[in-house]
Records
---
Amino acid sequence: MKNFIVTLLAIACFAILIAGNVHWRTLGAKEEGNPTATAVKPPEKTAVTEKAAPRWEFEDATVNWPADSRESFQNAMEAKRPFKIVFAGSDALGKEPDGWAFLLKNELVSTYGEKNIEITVVETNTNTRDALTAEWQKEIIDSGADMVVWEPFLLNDNGEVFMEESLRNITTIIEEVNAELPDTVFILQPANPIFKPKYYLTQVQELETYTEEKGLDYLNHWEEWPDPNSEEIKSYLNLQTSQPNAEGHKLWGEYLIKYFTGK
């Protein structure tokens, strides 16, 4: 009798185990088809660093450029058209083979390729007032410039145009160009230093302050020249014209080459 009862209990326990297993399987199936059922979250995956954007061909060379100009250059290349740069200013630009404009143009073409870059030099021996009166800025507009590297006639204004008016004239010229070419970026720079500059030094300092206030890039190549009050500066100038000699253009050009090519 005792054996019979033990056997019966064993059968009952086995039946309970089978029933329980069936119950849990059925419950699991219902939850799988029930959108309101609480889902079991899988283990979180280790964060994967996003794939870096592909490097642009001239990313290093244009590292010093304004961001808008870098983007404009990329867009020009995608459109298979040259990026247009204008060197603008007084005859201190140096279009001759030993001038900084000539040296920089050759270096830009060598760095970026003749098909990718187009350089125009717009030079005039005038001051900001006369340039504005003569609508000199139309030459820049006609060029379709993407970027303008402008030496805004400060040395020519010296003794003829007060700095307050100079800055107004500079603003007007930039605004008139941007009215026609809204994406054109201006980069300003002073002309070369001269021996014992006096008021001219004040003009240059005010130009730098102006560019900061307007959010423009300023090319402070004066930091590469000898002290303007020293005799050494004379070795870099044509003392009859107060413009750079070959050594002065080379020094100025090397500064600009570093900025525009990242070298």
---
Amino acid sequence: MASRQPESRIVGSNGENALVVIPTFNERDNLPLIVERLLSSQTGVHVLVVDDSSPDGTGDIADRLAADDAAGRIHVMHRTAKDGLGKAYLAGFTWGLGRDYAVIVEMDADGSHAPEQLHRLFDGINSGADLVIGSRYVPGGELVNWPKRREVLSKGANTYARLALGAKVKDITAGYRAFRREVLEKIGLTEVESAGYCFQIDLAWRSLQNGFTILEVPITFTEREIGESKMDGGVIAESFINVARWGIQGRLDRLRGKK
């Protein structure tokens, strides 16, 4: 699909018409900070906190933030199961698609994604892109306080996915991204099974397969200061296996003339 021509603003100058989905599990110290920064920098956005029954009381804090927000911009979803980042996002996307939001955003709760740079993603949407990824690996992108081991693992995963899938996306594993609602409506969310961080590759690949355009914009990714990363060996294994399967299937489809 050719890139859309620039059109009237899809997202307002203060983030109007956009929903930011923030999944949480044990983020009680980070959540108030990130929500305050987000609503200060983009006063028109709405926020949906998707909490997976955090034992540290994150869900209660989210409820309190929502109750204190007179403008009604903060919403909370309580899930009873902790079954992966992808499932939490899918639940949030479904909630957002049931309302009138034109753009739905993924953002981490731990402060690694700067809300002050969200306008870069919105500018990309308003310029005509279907999916805008906040990228660490395009010119202008930065990493702050990230352990070298994690950086090597991330760059290796992106290189592997790019080669296996033939996708020209430098940071296909990135989790700071904005979707036009039409993308999420078309790519088959009910068929997505990826639970961990492989979910990010899955949705970007589905977007490309459906002819949508992806734009990468530079962001500064900052390692969390509070709490622990949710990355583990099972997440890495899931990504490796699924990407290989998608790459093989994509090549077979092209040989058969399906793509």
